[in-house]
Amino acid sequence: MNLVIRQYADHDRAAVVDLSIRAWTLVFASMEAAMDAAVFKHFYPDWPTNQQQAVETVCAAATNQTWVALLDQQIVGFVATTLHQASSMGEIVMLAVDPAAQQQGIGTALTQFAIEHFRNLGMRVAMVETGGDPGHEPARQTYAKQGFRLMPIARYFQAL
Question: What are the boundaries of the signal sequence (predicted)?
Fold first, then answer.
């Protein structure tokens, strides 16, 4: 596998948005099954549009650093990070791999790249958040393999 990771550029936007929608289709289906229907519809009335906007915002934010993974010169994944200087912590804000390219170590490579980026900038802690539903299981496995430890947090919702 000839994987190249390079800095995100504005011309990557459409490819990154498209792959993220494909990657999160199963995740959002899993979240919908795990949540009360009214709560899901409240938070995600049009999840593809919301996700597109979220990806575009994260990739364009001056406070974030974003990289894309290319396999055979095609964008197959991306990772966006931010730094919390006051706490010497680097955060993986968003990471996605195209479903057609999953199970090839691309998520692991992007995670390792982000961790090394944090180390090179003198960060002392790395953090990432992900969902606890079945759709996020591959992400949880990737992060655990890289040495991240789960902090048990419970978040409850109720439709009113």
Answer: none
User: For position 131, what pLDDT does the model report?
Assistant: 85
Residue 150 maps to a domain: no
Question: Strand pairing of 125-128 and 89-97?
Answer: parallel
| H-type alpha helices, the chain | 13-34, 37-43, 47-60, 106-120, 137-145
Domain contains 13? yes
pLDDT at 133 over 90: no
Q: In sequence order, what are the beta bridge partners of 5?
A: 69
Q: State pLDDT tens for residues 4-37.
A: 999 999 999 999 999 999 999 988 998 899 889 9
- The answer to the question of residue 21 being in a domain is yes
Answer for the pair 103, 132: CB distance below 8 angstroms, yes or no. no
Domain count, the chain: 1
pTM: 0.90
